[in-house]
Amino acid sequence: MSWFTQMLQNLISFPYLEEYLSSVVHPWWFRKLLILLCSLMIDIYLVGCACSFGLYVYMKMNKHQETGPDSKIWKKPRKFIAHIADIYGKIWHGYEVTGMEHLPKGPGIIIYHHGVAPLGYALFVARHFLETGRLCFSLIHRLGDWIPGLQMFFYVSALKFYKKAEIVEMMKKGHLLGIAPGGGREALFSHDYDIMWGKRTGFAQAALEAKVPIIPIFTQNSCEAYRTIGKTRLSKWLYDKIRCTFILIYGGFPVKLRTFIGEPIPYDPNITAVELAQRAKIALENLRDKHQKRPGNILRALSERFDKHYKAN
């Protein structure tokens, strides 16, 4: 590892490389990294690592302290990353957003369907930041706490496994937070845009406690950009038992992506978390049924890149 570090340092001449690698590479992480690379997209992982290293260098060169992801010191690198993501979305997916006017000026919880890769949501966050300058926080799986090489990128992008108390406090500060209630199970085992929330109502309970609206969003063709091979009873059983499984992910297809933002579900003190979660699920399903042709088809999603007469209705 010392030889490898020295070779890379000589190649790119960054004095912070050895310090950075020593902070993210530990012997016990190699086993978990192997599991990660078997179940996630390697190309996305490597891009994230490159961004994380660049942010680390930026922090060291500017002598920044740990002041929180919403600090103004991260505005320039965050804007740069958002521009790169938005350019990628425009060129590779012809990305569009409809319904920005439905987003509240104040706090709110955004819910979305978790495709194999939450690409549509990520492009939405970048576009929203460029248009409004407002950071959208995002809830991720506990897995993010130990993925080597991505911690700095997650930190600056406000990606974290937030507890309910943290979410409520975040809402009091006026922030937006994105949540995919279906999580990893929906990403890996959802069939044809099925909403797989089970009995999860935590996001609804947090919205009620913080007295904020819930905003559903749906990205058309999100399940056609990346797909999986290996959905079996055994792989699902493994995921349910140990929250880890081996499923091959392929794709990166330049399909048309459009994100539709639905009307907010306002705070109502007279309903329960279960009722609010059900209402949010129905709102998301209505967006899906209105804007997504099912069953999904990669060739059709590709051809929509050239459809100049598409209408949202």
TrEMBL record:
InterPro entries referenced in this protein's UniProt entry, alphabetically: Plipid/glycerol_acylTrfase
Pfam families the record matches: Acyltransferase
Ligase as UniProt keyword: no
Domain Phospholipid/glycerol acyltransferase: 96-218
TM ranges: 33-58
MF GO annotations: acyltransferase activity
Glycoprotein is among the record's keywords: no
One Gene Ontology cellular component annotation held by this UniProt entry: membrane
Keywords: Membrane, Transmembrane, Transmembrane helix
PANTHER family referenced in this protein's UniProt entry, alphabetically: TRANSMEMBRANE PROTEIN 68
UniProt name for this protein: 68-like
Source organism: Podarcis lilfordi
Lineage of origin: Eukaryota, Metazoa, Chordata, Craniata, Vertebrata
